[in-house]
Records
---
Amino acid sequence: MPAMAGLLLTLLLVWLVVNLVKEPSYFVTISFIGLTNGAVYALVALGYTLVYGILELINFAHGDVFMLGGLISATMLITVFGLTEHSSTGAVVVALLGSLAVAMVACGVINATIEFVAYRPLRGAPRLAPLITAIGMSFILQNVAIFFYDTGYTGLPRVLPHGSVFSVGGVTYTWDKLIVVIVTVPVLVGLMWLVLRTRQGKAMRATAQDRDAAAMMGINVNRTISFTFLLAGALAGAAGLLYALYFREVRYDTGFQLGLIAFTAAVLGGIGNLPGAVLGALSIGFIQAYNDGLRWHSPGSDWTQSIVFSILILILVFRPEGLLGERTPEGA
Amino acid sequence: MKRRLRQSISRAWWTALGAVGLPQERWLALPSATRRAVKTAIWLAVALALIAVFGVWDNSALLAAVVVFALIAPRWDGLTVAGRPVGKYITPAAILALAISYPYYLDYLPELPLFGPFPQVGTMVVMMIFSMMALGLNFVVGYAGLLDLGYVAFYAMGAYMAGWFASTQFSKQHLNLGAVGLYPGWTGFHFSIWLVLLMAGIATAVVGVIIGLPTLRLRGDYLAIVTLGFGEIMPQIARNGNDFLGTGFNLTNGTGGITPIDGPGFGNWAGDHLHLPANYLNAGNLDSIFFWTALGLVLITVFVSARLRDSRLGRAWVAIREDETAAAAMGVPLMRTKTWSYATGAFFGGVAGAYYASYKSGAFPDDFFFQISVFILCMVILGGMGNIWGVIFGACFLAYLDREGLANIGAQVSDTVGRQIDVPKYEFGIFGIIIVLTMLFRPEGLIPSRRRAAELHEGVHDEPLYDVAHDERLTP
C-alpha cells in the first residue's frame, strides 16, 4: 500500500514538473489562482476543524453558512453600499470593511443559533444523530437562500481593482487576488492569537481535550461551544465575502460544493488541527487550480469533484490522521 | 416540552372520557380489546370529520374507514386456528390484497384534505421502487448502523447496467438474450430485463464491496463522508463518460444519458400460453403491470430483509450497531460483517435502479445527485431505522410527496392563502425540516423498531473504550 501511495505521489510530481518546464510563466500564473482559492478554502476549512475539534461533529451545514455569508455580502455591497464598477477606492474600502463586519457577525450568529437549536439537544445522543441533523440543517439553509434569493446566481459587479500588482516575464499578479490574501492573513493570525493566547482560547482547548474535566475546572462548556460556533461562522462569513467579491456569483448550492472541498482540505491537513487546515486548504487550492488550468494532460474542471474526493478517500485510507494530525481512533 | 405536550393530551383524553360518563377507573376496567376498538373508532371518526370539513365528502371514505377499522381494531395478532398462529399473517395479507387491487379501486377513492386525491398508479410504481431502495439502505443504516450518504451511487450503477445491457448504447455489439419489443435492425446488447435486474444487483453488490473494502475500516462520520464522496464521483463519471478517460470510448453517453431502455416482458411464448404480459410497453394497463411487478420486487426485498435480520448475520449487524468494540470482542468479524451489509444494501439499490431505468426508459446522470441519497436516507429515518414496515411507510410517503403530494399541497395552500406559493421548490428544505424534527423529537422514527428506539434513547455510543483522540486538539 505505501508503495502505491508513493507511486501516485511520484506521478503527480512528474506531471507538475513537466507542466512547469513546458510553460513556466503560465504555471506560475495558475499557481496564483491556486493561492487565492486556497485562501478562501482555508477560512471555510478552519470552521470545520474548529467545530470538529471541540465536538467531534462534522458540521455539514457549515458550507451553507458560508454561502449565506456570500449572499449577505452581495446584498450589503450592492444594495446597502451601492458599489459599482466605477466606485472610488475609498468607497470600496469602506464598503468592504462594513460588509465584512456584517457578514461575519451575521454568519457567526446563524452558526451559533444552529448549534443551540439543532445540535445541543443531541449532545448525549449517538454520534450519528447530530451528523444527520446537520445534513437536514444544510438543506434548510439552502432553502432559506432560495426563499430570499431564488435559485439563480446572484451576480456582483467587478468592484475589486483588477490591474496588475507586478508583471514579470509574462507572469502577472492582479490586485483582486492580492486583496483576497490581504484579508485572509490577518483573520488567520487573529484566530491563532485568539485560540493560543487568550483565556477564551484556553477554555476552547480545554473543552476540546476533555469536556467533563473542563466543566469541573469551572469552564462554562456550553458557552465555550457556542463561542466556537460563533467563531467558525464568522470565518465562514469572511470567506463568503471574499468568494462573492472574487468569483462574483453566488447561488444557493455554492456552499454545498465548496463546503465539501473545504472539508476535504480540513481532513487533508488533519482534522482538529488549525495550521493543518490552512495547509490542506492551500494544497487543495493548488491541486484544483492545476487540474482546471494546466494544459499538459490535465483532467480538466469536469473532473474536479472526482479528484478532490479521490484525495479525500486516499487520505482517509492511507493517512487518516492527515498531514499534520495525530492518529485518532476513527482512523485506527 | 415533549413531555408536557404528552401530559396535556392525556389530560384532555381523560376529561373527554369523564364527560361521556366514563371515569378513568371504569375505562381501565374495560377489556383491552374494547378499549382498542373505541380508540381506533375515535381516530377514524376524527379523520372522517376532517375529510367532511376540509375535503370532498364521498361515501367511499366510510367504506375505507370500515376496512381500516376491521384491520386495526381487533387483536388479530393473537388469533390461532387449530393451534397455529395464523393471526400474525392477517394484517400483512390484507394490506397486500389492498395493494394488489389498488389500480381497480383507485378511481372510487375520496379526496383527502390537504393532500388531495390518492396517488396515481404511475406514482405507486415510483413509491414501490423507492421502498426497495430504502429497504436496501436500511441494511446499511438500520441494521448495521453505518451511515451511507452515497446510496445514489448504487442506484446509478443499477440504472447504467440497464442502460448498457438493454439498449442500443454499444452499437457495435449485436446480442439478444430474451429481450422483448426489439425493432428490426437493432444493435447493442439486449438482455431480458429479468436477467438485467439480476446482473445489475450483482454488479452493484460488487461495486459495494469494492467501495467498502478500503473504507469500512473507518468509523462513523468519516465513513459517511467517504460514501458521500463515492456518491459524487459516480455521477461525475456518468456525466463525463462519453469519452472515457480520453480514449474516445463512449461509456455513458455523457449528459444526454442512455435512452431508450427496453421494457420488461415475458416474451411471446409466455404471453400466448400463460397469459403473462409479453411486452409491458405494449400492454394496455402499462402502469398497473409495472406496479404489480414492483410490488413483487418489494415483497422479495421484505422477505430477504426479514430473514436476514433474524439470521446469524443480522444479529451480527445489530451487535456492531450497538457496540462495535464489544461485538469485535465477542468474535464478530467486523470487516466481513460490515461488507456484507454494504453488499446486500447495494444489491437491492442496483436492482431498484435498473428497474426504475427500465420503467423510465432511460438512465440520465442528472437523476443521481446527493439530494437523492439524502432523500432515501430521510425515508429510512422518518419511517423508523431498522423497522421494515416503518421504512416502507417512510419511502411511500416521501416518494408520494415528491411526485404528487407537494404539488397538491402547494395548490391547496395557494388556494387558501390566495397567493401563489411554489411548494415543490422548497422540497428539500421540507425534507431537511423533517430530518431535523425527527432527529430532535422522535429519533426512532414514526414506526420504530423497539430495539433501535431503546438504543437511541439510552444513548448507546459508538465510542472506543480507550480515548486517545483528545490529546492536543486545537493546538499546533
---
Amino acid sequence: MSDVAWIVVAAVVKSAIAIGALLTIFAYMTLVERRVIARFQRRVGPNRAGPLGLLQPLADGMKMAFKEQIIPTKARRLIFVLSPAISVFVALIAFAVVPLGNTTTWGTSPVAIAWAPFIADLNVGVLYMLAISSLAVYGIVLGGWSSGNHYSLLGALRSAAQMVSYEVSIGLALAGVLMLSGTLSMVGIVHAQVAQGIWFILAQPLAFVLYAIAATAEVNRAPFDLPEAEQELVAGYLTEFSGLRWSLYQMAEYINMITVSSIAATLFFGGWTLGGLEGIPGMPFVWYTIKVAIFLFIFIWVRATLPRIRYDQLMKVGWQALLPLSIINLVFTGLAVALGWPWWASGLFGLGVLLIVAVVLYNRLRLRQAMERQSGEAVPLALPSSVRLVRIAPATASESGDGVVAAPAAPAESVTTS
Amino acid sequence: MAAVGYLNAAIFFLGGAGFVVASLTFANVLNALLLKKRPAKSKYAIYESGETPIGSAWIQYPLAFYIFALLFVAFDVDIVFILSWAVIFQQLGIFGFIEIVFFILVLALGLVYAWRKGVIRWI
C-alpha cells in the first residue's frame, strides 16, 4: 500500500481508539468520582455491581439507553434533539490535537510517524483548542433555549455568560506560555519545554493558576457549577433532558474535563516528558496518563471540598480578578522575553503576584472574623444591591425561645445591603 | 505535514459525528422497539417543580447577559491578535513589545471604562 493509504488507515484506527478510550474513561470517571466523593463524605459508594462496583458504569449506561427520551410539547423539537449531539461532538473533537507522545515515538519513517500517538499535530493546535472549546457553549445554550422551560433558559444564559467570561482569561493566560514556546503546536510546546529544560509551570505559575480556575469555570465544574445550581434552577439546562440525551450532556462535561486536564498537562507540565525518563519505550504514555489522572482527581477533590459560589461572585472573580491578573502576567512575560531575561524572572514575578493576592485575601478573612468576634453576630454579606434580605421577627416573645433560627428579635424590616 | 494533520482531524470529526449519530439512533430504535408508550399530558409538560407553568419560557431576561456578551466579543477579538503576536514575539524583540503594550493598554482602558461604568458588576 502507498504511504497515503497507510496514513488514512492509521488515522481511522487512531480515531476509533481515541473515541473508545474517551468514552471508557468517561464511564469509569463517573464511577471513580462517586466512590471518591463517597470516601470524602465517609460513605462507601456504589460497590454492588461487580467487584468494587466496576460494572456500575455499564449498568448506568444500559439504564440510560433504555429510558424513554421525553420531548416536552412546548420544546422546539429539532434543536432540542440536536443540542446534546452538538455538545458531545464538540467535546470529542477538541481532543484531536492532544499529544500523548512524541511524533517519532515508533520510529522516523513516514508510516511510523503516521502512527504517532495523537490524532493531528496542527500548527495552530492551541488556537484550534480555544476555538473548539468556544463552540461548547452552543450545545448548552441551544439545549436550554429549546426546552421551553424557564429554568432551562436561565440556566443556559448563566452558563453562556460564565463560559464567555472565563474564556477571555484562558486565552490571555495561555498567551504567556505561547510567548515562551514560540509555537502554537501542542507537540512543539512540549519540545520547547524539553529544549529550555523546564516545565512552563516554573516560568508561568500565575498563568497556570489563572488557567486552572478559569478552566474549572469553563467546564462548569464545582465550585463554578452555577448552571446546574439545583437550589435555584432545578437542573439548569438539563432540566427537560432524559434518557440518552441526558447522558450525552454528562459525557460532554466529563470529556471536557479530560481535555482541559490534558491541556494543563501539555502546556504547563511537559506533556509526556518527565526529565528524560520518556526515553524508555512505552513510558511517555504512562507519564502522560499519571499527570492527567492527578488533575482529574483534583477536580473531584475540589468538588468535595468547596461550596458553590454565588453568581455575582462568579462574575466578579472572572472580570475583576482573573482578567486584570492575566493582563499583568501577559505584559510582564512580554517584558521578560523581550529583554532576554531568564525564565525564573517571570516565575518569581508570578509567585510574587500570587503571594500578594493570598495575603490580601487572608487579611480580608481575618478582618471579617475579628469584626464578627467583636459584634457577636455575622457581618452582613457583601451582596449586590438587587438582593434584599428580609428579616422576619418571631410572632411572640414566648415562641421565640424555642425557635430554631437564632436570629435576634428585631422588628420586621427589610435590610438592603450594597 | 500540516495537510496530513488536517486530514487526520477531518477523519476524527467524521468518527465523532458517527458516534453521536449511532448512539442517538441506537437509543431511538430501542425506544421504538421496547418501550410501551403511555402518553399523558402531564408527562410531556415542562417541569417547573410540580407547578403548572405560567406563560411562555421565552421571556425577557436580564440585560446584563447582553453586556457581558458584548464585552466578550471585544476581548476575544483582541485575544486573536495577541495570540498571533505571542507566537512570533521572540523575533520581534523590544519593538514588538512596545507595540503590543499600546494595544494591551487600549484593552485595559476598555476594561477600566467598563469597571467605572459599573457594568462588570453583577447586579
